[in-house]
Amino acid sequence: MTETARQRPDWQTWPNLITLFRLLLIPVFVLLVVARHPGWALVALVVIGVSDWADGFVARRFDQGSKLGKAIDPVADRLAIIAIVLSLVLVGLLPLFVVIVVVAVDLVLAVLSSALFHGNPDLDVTWTGKIRSALLFVGLPVLLFSAVHTVDENAPWVRIVALVFVYLGTAGHVLAGAQYAVAMVRKRRAVAPAA
């Protein structure tokens, strides 16, 4: 009850500001990758990854969770992943099928969400989703790091390790997508009698 007494708008929180910053940094990262500046792109990617952790930490630590944050945080994560894998495909670091799988899963979830809920289904993030994001946010920066000239020449195994993480993360993306789809259907069935 004391939380509602703050009279703070739902959107006006530090976690939402951090998420907005992450969204603005995504096109910067893409431009750096396409312009063949893997070092600076790696810095931008690390900041994107840290901000993904930071908004959740701040929301929990300072009790600044919000409906808007719950809605835009997963959207920011998905946009970041799609933009990152697409830019790495464009410069030849990643196979095209990874983008196809990631985009296909997100499209199915978007269509399902729109059909069943006309928008955001307000679902909690699953552990599979968190592990998927962690694998991708480790594998993708390492893959980018492998493109740095000295690493590419002296440690080609770094790219192999990075691809293992990315492929595991991609498989996790499919599994997490299936879990979200099932959760959406179950939630819709639960609320259908009351509708």
TrEMBL record:
Record-level GO cellular component terms = membrane
- Any one GO biological process: glycerophospholipid biosynthetic process
Any Pfam family hit: CDP-OH_P_transf
Keywords of this protein's UniProt record, alphabetized?
Lipid biosynthesis, Lipid metabolism, Membrane, Phospholipid biosynthesis, Phospholipid metabolism, Transferase, Transmembrane, Transmembrane helix
Indicate the transmembrane segments per the record. Answer: 14-33, 40-59, 79-112, 133-151, 157-182
How is this protein situated with respect to the membrane? Multi-pass membrane protein
Q: Which family is this protein grouped under?
A: Belongs to the CDP-alcohol phosphatidyltransferase class-I family.
This protein is called what?
CDP-diacylglycerol--glycerol-3-phosphate 3-phosphatidyltransferase
